[in-house]
Fold this sequence. Notes:
Helix content of chain B: 55-70%
Shape of chain A: globular
Number of helices of chain B: 10
Oligomer: heterodimer
Order of helices and strands of chain A: HHHHHHHHHH
Low-confidence stretches of chain B: none
Radius of gyration of chain B: 17 Å
Strand order of the largest sheet of chain B: 1-2
Largest sheet of chain B: 2 strands, antiparallel
Number of helices of chain A: 10
Helix content of chain A: 55-70%
Amino acid sequence: MKLIDFAKEVGKLKSVKRSGWLLHGIKNPESVAEHTFRVAVLAMVLAPKFGLDSEKVLKMALLDDLAEGIVGDLVVERGHTPGKRNHQHTLEKKALRKIFSLVDDGQKFISLWEELQAKKTQEARLVKQVERLEMAIQALEYESKNKNQNLQEFFDNAEMHIKDKELVGFFEELKAMRNSKAKI
Amino acid sequence: MRNNNKNYWRKILNIAQASGILKQVPRTGWVLKGVEKAESVAEHSYRVALLTMMLADKFGLDRNKLVEMALVHDFGEAGIGDIKWETGRVVLVPPTAKHRDEKAIMKKIVSGFKDGAKYSNLLEEFIRRRSKEAKFLKQVDKLEMIIQALEYEAAGYPPSWFNEFWENAEKYLSGKELEGIFSELRSLRKQ
């Protein structure tokens, strides 16, 4: 196992800024590592509510954007074609193969990542929706810090992807807080 | 029923907000040295979690417990910020004070949350180094710190700035399971 090299690949995510915020002119936006941290925490605490295997959910959450240290953070929905999205997927898989060749049993982590991207299993669907919820919470926090900031597109994006009845309930709470300009 | 749910989401939001604070709290050790735009506690915890995920099986540890513990191990920083408790081998503040504060903060973060005790207990287990996982996590915590120190050194900061971090890491890794990797890291250091 080449743990130090693996650690270096992971460390890159501390420097990759979340491009959606950058494109919106947010000063000093969070890194992909920071975003993933919170997604993982939320996935961890929410898994039991959905009766899901929390270990699997947690692993998936931590793996999601790992390839972006090599491939970068592509904002998928902003006018990028399905073709570009597929290309991104191919690049990410290649990057992950490289990263997981550095650890023991790497293939099983790649398989887990594939399962996550396919969004067919309950665990995968939960993680992907939690990811959008986290983004919405972050948007709310950025708006709270700067009155001139309007991050509607992120809420619209989250709304498109959050489908589970329970999570929609949470999302509605967030929207209500936003509309009432509650200090978050 | 509807109010119960609303209450549940409020608790989840508390946890989300505490995690958000960790994105803003820089790792004090680096800041005090003069590292610009030092990493946040969230970034550190993220890498620690991934490292534990890869190492757990090799050392016969409970992987899920280890990864969860890694995610929560610095939650105490959400209240008081990231305080520097040691310099090298010298302890600056009595551990009891630090532990008491961290536990109080964690309690507040998970207050009213149905599964809150689980995470408070995990943090306590880590603080008290009660289990194999807790002891191992402390090593990974310091190993990750050293890897970060090396990265700052490679970025051009004077290596001498980081001597105290290497000393501190040695205190926790010498004679332990991850000593081998620590030695390897030491050999990578520019002198």
